[in-house]
Design a protein that fits this description.
Layout lengths: L3 E5 L3 H12 L3 E5 L8 H7 L3 E3 L2 H7 L2 E4 L11 H4 L3 E4 L5 H4 L3 H4 L5 H8 L5 E3 L6 H6 L11 E6 L2 H14 L2 E6 L16 H4 L8 H10 L7 H9 L18
Parallel strand pairs: 1-2, 1-4, 2-3, 4-5, 5-6, 7-8
Antiparallel strand pairs: 6-7
Length: 251
């Protein structure tokens, strides 16, 4: 049973997931590359179920661990401390931020497969990365709610996927198993299931500032299981890596 989630990376996505976890009664151990002291405000907001630690400590403390760092830092994750732990991969490859990664650009390996190779002793499960951090928190719903959304899940270890699907259910989401880490390209940036379906229709003719305000304030839309399946099936493999220009908060 998952009682504690470790976080390596405590930015927007990590913070939203941690808030959902605490709301569900779970404990969280937050970490980042700058040191536990820089997380004082976040931990204070999260309350008694949260504490700050180093990445090594968060890795050891978590029943599962969320890796939510830039893709360029994937090989800095503490493989030894993560051995035997399920690792949730929320990372996306953005060459503008991460630099070019030749193995990914070739299309021969997905970003999650690259992470799995680094974390050889940890089953990696790809999920959560295809929603923006605002809707990720605000669109969570109890099981059975009519407007509950689903998230794609990919992984090579069936038992690990089952465990994370159960965790997503607790956090407020249904799940669609889309296959192995090799299949995870179907929910990478630029694919039909990435970000936009959960946001809803973008207003036309808006300035950059108006678009960014809409992004902050939009309630979003439910994306149920059947729609996620259709969006996954519609994916066509194209150029690898996302672009910031395609992101709504970038304008």
């Amino acid at each position: 049973m998952i009682r504690t989630i470790g976080f390596i990376g405590s930015g927007s996505i990590g913070g939203s997931l941690a808030r959902l976890a605490v709301a569900a009664g779970l404990d969280v151990v937050m970490s980042n590359s700058r040191g536990p002291e820089t997380l004082a405000d976040l931990v204070a907001e999260l309350g008694d179920h949260a504490r700050a630690a180093t990445p090594q400590e968060a890795a050891k403390a978590g029943d599962v661990v969320v890796a939510t760092v830039p893709m360029s830092a994937y090989d800095k994750l503490p493989a030894g401390a993560l051995a035997g732990k399920i690792v949730i991969d929320t990372m996306n490859y953005y060459p503008e931020r991460d630099g070019r990664i030749a193995e990914l650009d070739s299309g021969d390996i997905t970003s999650s497969e690259l992470l799995q190779r680094h974390l050889a002793d940890s089953p990696v499960v790809k999920t959560v990365h295809n929603m923006d951090w605002i809707r990720l928190y605000s669109r969570a719903r109890p099981a059975g709610t009519a407007d509950r959304s689903a998230l794609p899940v990919a992984g090579d270890d069936p038992a690990a996927k089952t465990e994370i699907i159960r965790l997503l259910a607790v956090l407020g989401y249904d799940a669609v198993d889309i296959g192995t880490l090799a299949d995870s390209w179907r929910c990478e940036p630029g694919t039909p299931v990435s970000v936009w379906p959960y946001l809803g229709e973008r207003p036309e003719g808006t300035t950059k500032e108006e678009t960014q305000r809409w992004f902050r304030e939009a309630p979003g839309e439910p994306v149920p299981t059947d729609r996620v399946k259709k969006l996954i099936d519609a994916a066509v493999r194209g150029p690898v890596g996302g672009t910031f220009a395609a992101l709504p908060f970038w304008g």
